[in-house]
Amino acid sequence: MNRDFLNARLLAGAIIVGGVCLMALISLVWTPYDPLKLDIANRFAPPGPRHWLGTDQLGRDVLSLLMRGAVGPVGVSISAVTIGLVVGATAGMLAASSGGVASYATLRTSDFLFAFPALLIAILLRETLGPGMLNAMVAIGIFYIPIFIRVSYGASLPVWRSGYVAAARVAGRGSLWIATVHVLPNIAGVLTVHTSVQLSLGVLAEASLSYIGLGVQPPQPSWGRMLLEAQTLLPISPLLAIAPGLAIMVTVMGFNLLGAGLRQALDPRGAFIPESEAVR
Amino acid sequence: MTVWRMTRRCAALILGVALLCGGPAFAQRTDLAIGVRLEPPHLDPTAAAAAVIGEITYANLFEGLTRIDREGRVIPGLAESWEVSDDGKVYTFRLRQGVFFHDGSTFDARDAVFTLERAIAPDSINPQKALLEPIEAVEAVDAHTLSVRLKRPTAQLPFILGLPALVIVGHETAETNRAMPNGTGPFRFSRWHMGDRVDLVRNDRYWGEKPALSRVTFRVIGDPSAAYAALMAGNIDAYTNFPAPEHLPQFEADPRFKVVVGRTEGKTVLAQNNARKPLDDIRVRRAIAHAIDRKLLIDGALYGYGDPIGSHFAPQNAGYVDLTGRYPYDPEAARALLREAGAEGLRLKLALPPPSYARRSGEIIAERLRDVGIQVDIVPMEWAQWLTDVFRDKNYDLSIVSHVEPNDLDIYARDDYYFNYDSPEYKALYAELAAEQDEEKRLVLLKSLQQKLTDDAVNGFLFLLPKLGVWDARLQGFWENAPIPANDLTGVRWER
Amino acid sequence: MIRAFAAGVASLLATLLVASVVIFAAMQVLPGDPAQVMLGVNARPDTLAALREQLGLDQPLAVRYWTWVSGLLTGNPGVSHTYAVPVSDLIAARLGVSLPLAALALALAVAIGLPLGMWAAARRGRAVDRGVLIVAQLGIAVPNFWLAMLLVLLFAVTLRWLPPGGFPGWDAGAGPALLALVLPAVALALPQSAILAQVMRQSLVDVLAQDFVRTARAKGLTRGQALRRHALRNAFIPILSVLGLQFPFLLAGTIIIENVFFLPGIGRLVFQAVNQRDLIVVQSVVMLLVAIVAVVNLLVGLAYAAVDPRVRRAA
Q1: How many domains in chain B?
Q2: Is B329 helix (H, G, I), strand (E, B) or coil?
Q3: Which three-class secondary structure state does DSSP give residue B2?
Q4: For residue B44, which of A228, B178, C257, C265 is within the disulfide window of CB 3.0 to 4.6 Å?
Q5: Is the distance from CB of A230 to CB of A240 less than 8 angstroms?
């Protein structure tokens, strides 16, 4: 494996992710057509100069829907990973600091959360609180917490046992101070790499939840729900199902490439993750 | 490799079957596979409201004293005939003789008494118990005569007794009907592959004319594109209530299929919480009525199949009056009414149950309402939540739902119904109708009731849900309309 | 090893106990009345009350919890509200679809993913390697329900080679039943196999770079021989851990895929039961799924510890 290819991955990932995020942001202020505007007389229009990707079953412009539809997957994925990162990394680091009961309890809670299928949490949340973007974020965020607990626990354990942390303790610094000043910078690389990998999973997860009717609610479009609606129309207009699926795929791939590239840039020895890329 | 070999073998098999079917000397078919959308929770129509139970069992496995035919008329069933006393309070049913349940036991007045008493008992879980409230007592005069005594005249009784929830069950097998339905119908229950299909076979001891079909399979295929593929591939022969109108043109273009667009009793309404501000103001409700574009709705949500309605009444029923012109689509009039009511900048929640007619209509209505200045927040929900939040707790502004019960003008006269419509005039009119025996006068009253609902703009009246039937062009005898949720297969046969 | 096992089992039991309380509590806050769902809009309050009594929903919470949990222990958690058959029978019947589906998907994923990974590792840096990596990147990024839709469009709607959905039951013969599982299993397996191929390739590459393999190659073995004789066994450790990590995804995937293909499996059951508010079925199935994930976790952890004694991650 040569370095050029890896750099290419970082670049490609950054371009795709940047492009999708930009598209989502732009869609909030401008889209070729109003993505909520119905034009039933002009439904199922094929791709053409007026509508580049055609129109859907209610005559809405598919390109505009696709642009606005990026807001859900990207937004939910980023927020959910943030929830998982903040809660999980804090808990993981502190668990590694203390050992004993608190540590044990944190790790067991993490195992427990991990055993709960995220999909079921999502379904139960939908039924209790009603569907919505916020619930998708929470459901996926809960799923991320144990992952980040494990990662940050494993990575920070050796740091806590290092000499300078012992020195800081002797100097009377509290755990939180040490965690912020000494431990966090040391595990930041690991967390960055994991974050970008998890973001790609987040996009997939949001799409799955939207597909089963959770997540961004109509009339606001989202890729997963576009797929759900297109499913019954497959024999009539396959493009309606192909376009959002491709959008999901490209976005997920972008985050994956970014993660692989970052891993290469930040972790050339493959110390962070056992199955990581390594250069010899 | 294995997958490839399997697909090849499968292709060969399909080809072989196709060749066989195409042969001119192929024997008369007597089997039938019908698609249904939802999985039945169980197979006892007297113990749950799910329409699919009736769609499988009604008139096939189970029969009632009376029977509702394809046009919604009441005809004799297990009762050959009936008489009503002069005061309208005693019905006497003469029961058919020589009728056997599928388990071999004989049907007589004991079973009829048992069925009705079970349905009105304090611990009854019959979904239509409310309709039986006028019944005072049921007794067997002799083995083949049943008398039903009423608290007050109820002209609807023979119709009520023909509903799926009031089919006759055997007094020894009533509790096992859920998994092993035992009725008197022309088909016997054979097997239920839970999650996939229900198999029925012909009942050779049937009292009436034997059906032409010998084996019937109801297959659960919920996804419209799967249903489309299953019909196209010949995995099923019929789908009598096809869930996706967008596919109909493709079936219409294919000579192998017959497409029949009929009517249901499903009056689809934009339900409004009449007690909640600002919907308690008739001007706001009328504004909403003016903002509803029925043509657009029927085109957009139903692909043009379906009839507009102007009140809570199905056009095919006697007494119908066309009120669809009362509030023409007129955004300007809607805005003016809202201004007059001082209700500008409204924000309303629209609760949508799962069926696609509701979800699709909801998006269209929301867009039209936005156009006249009402912000609409769509809240999709499952039936369970709809039943508690909207129906029971009345915690909603707007909702879209199809009312499929025939002759249900009484719901607007109820005190605690979820529309929260409280009109003494309407109640008085309805009481008059309930007591009226004369058909002419009943029709006049029915018209006044419809008129009153429209005048008060109680709900937004949208359209009558169509019954979209698709079946193999060689099949005959299916119901064109759906006066009740049923697939009466007694008259269905393959063309010679 | 024995201590690790005992600790693992103890923590498993604790997880299950807490899970049972959490799940039961979640059922109680679920809005909706099971009786109303069954009897519909025309039911009167007294009818609903009668049904609730029949279903045992009028009992105090503690009693219902205890009845359920003690039932779980004896393998008979209760009777389904809607189907009126024992929940254990219902689950057993549905597992008859879900387990073969998951097994088929897993087998397919392994059968596709591992050889691809090995192939790429053996041709490291060459066109084959890059090709496999790119295909794997695509495969990982494909949402499995979308793949399912495309497969249906191609093989069921257009070519009509395979059924678009539904399940004829095992008594219709193994042939038709397996045919019905082909598309769902492929939809589940392809993304999984992409992950496996990537991991397999990387761990082989890692192992090949280690000293003992270099020694073997110095002794004159070709890369392929070194790979077969020395590297494979060691490379399986990460595969094992990835399989463990992927298991919950496979499970969640199965739930969604069963709904796309209308297969009467556990996933369909839980969706329907949630919609019909068949609480006893929902809580029993969720409990089962949690237990499966927890047990798989435990086993993977133990296997990991057994294969590689250096790994001791538990606190």
Answers
A1: 3
A2: coil
A3: helix
A4: B178
A5: yes
B10 in a domain, yes or no?
A: no
Closest of B36, B42, B39 to residue B125, by C-alpha:
B42
CB-CB under 8 Å, C32 with A234: no
Q: Is residue B38, in this structure, part of any structural domain at all? A: no
Domain membership of residue A113 as a residue range: 3-37+49-277
Query: Is B49 in contact with C179 (Cβ distance < 8 A)?
Result: no
Whether residue C105 contacts residue C148, with contact meaning beta carbons closer than 8 Å, is answered with no
Question: Are B362 and A218 in contact (CB < 8 Å)?
Answer: yes
Q: Residues B118-160: pLDDT tens digits?
A: 999 998 999 999 889 999 999 999 999 999 999 988 888 999 9
Class of domain C87-314: mainly alpha
List the structure tokens of C304. Answer: 């990991």
Asked if B305 contacts B245 with a C-beta cutoff of 8 angstroms, the reply is yes
pTM exceeding 0.90:
no
Count of beta carbons in the 10 Å neighbourhood of residue B390? 23
Picking from B37, B41, B44, the residue whose alpha carbon sits closest to that of residue B164 is: B44
Residue B394 lies in a domain: yes
Is there a domain that residue B95 lies in?
yes
Band the pLDDT of A269: cuts 50, 70, 90. low
**Token output for C267:** 């996933």
The tokens of B346 are what? 């409204």
Does the CB of C271 have a partner CB in chain A at under 8 Å? yes
Collect all residues of chain B within an 8 Å Cβ-Cβ radius of residue A132. Answer: none
Indicate the DSSP class of residue B1: -
Q: Which of A100-104, B71-75, B237-241 has the highest mean pLDDT?
A: B237-241
Cβ–Cβ below 8 Å for A120 and C153:
no
Measured distance CA(B87)–CA(A10) in Å, rounded: 89
Put simply, whether A278 touches B (Cβ < 8 Å) is no
Q: Give the burial string for B432-445 (b: 16+ CB within 10 Å, else e).
A: ebbebeeeeebeeb
Residue B359's pLDDT band, with cuts at 50, 70 and 90, is very high
- A-chain residues near C125 (CB < 8 A): 1-2
Number of domain units in chain A: 1
pLDDT at site C253: 84
Contacts of B391 in chain C (CB under 8 A): 36, 41
CA–CA distance, B489 with B35 (Å, rounded to integer): 13
C28 near C61, Cβ under 8 Å?
yes
Dihedral pair phi/psi, residue B265, rounded to 5°: -100, 10
Span C121-145, pLDDT tens digits: 888 888 888 899 889 989 989 999 9
Distance of alpha carbon B471 from alpha carbon B453, whole angstroms: 38
ipTM over 0.90: no
In DSSP notation, B181-242 reads ---SSSEEEEEEETTTEEEEEE-TT-SSPPPS-SEEEEEE--SHHHHHHHHHTTS-SEETT-
> Confidence band (pLDDT; 50, 70, 90) for A268?
low
Ramachandran assignment for C227, one of left (phi > 0), alpha (psi -120 to 50 degrees), beta (any other): alpha
Query: Chain A partners of B387 at a C-beta cutoff of 8 Å?
Result: none
- Residue B170: domain span: 63-176
Rounded Cα distance between C67 and C78, Å, is 8
**Average confidence (pLDDT) over C232-256:** 76
- What does the DSSP assignment read for C108-132? HHHHHHHHHHHHHHHTTTSHHHHHH
pLDDT band at A6 (very low <50, low <70, confident <90, very high): low
Asked whether the beta carbons of B259 and B251 are under 8 A apart, the reply is yes
Q: pLDDT (tens digit, 9 = 90+) per residue, C55-96?
A: 888 899 999 999 999 999 998 899 888 887 899 999 998 999
CATH number for the domain harbouring residue B350? 3.10.105.10
Instruction: Give the pLDDT score at C307.
Output: 65
What the block records as the tokens of C124 is 């490291």
Whether A43 maps to a domain, the answer reads: no
From B403, B347, B404, select the one nearest B379 (Cα to Cα): B347
* Distance from the Cα of residue B116 to its chain's centroid: 22
Given this model, what pLDDT does residue A277 score?
28
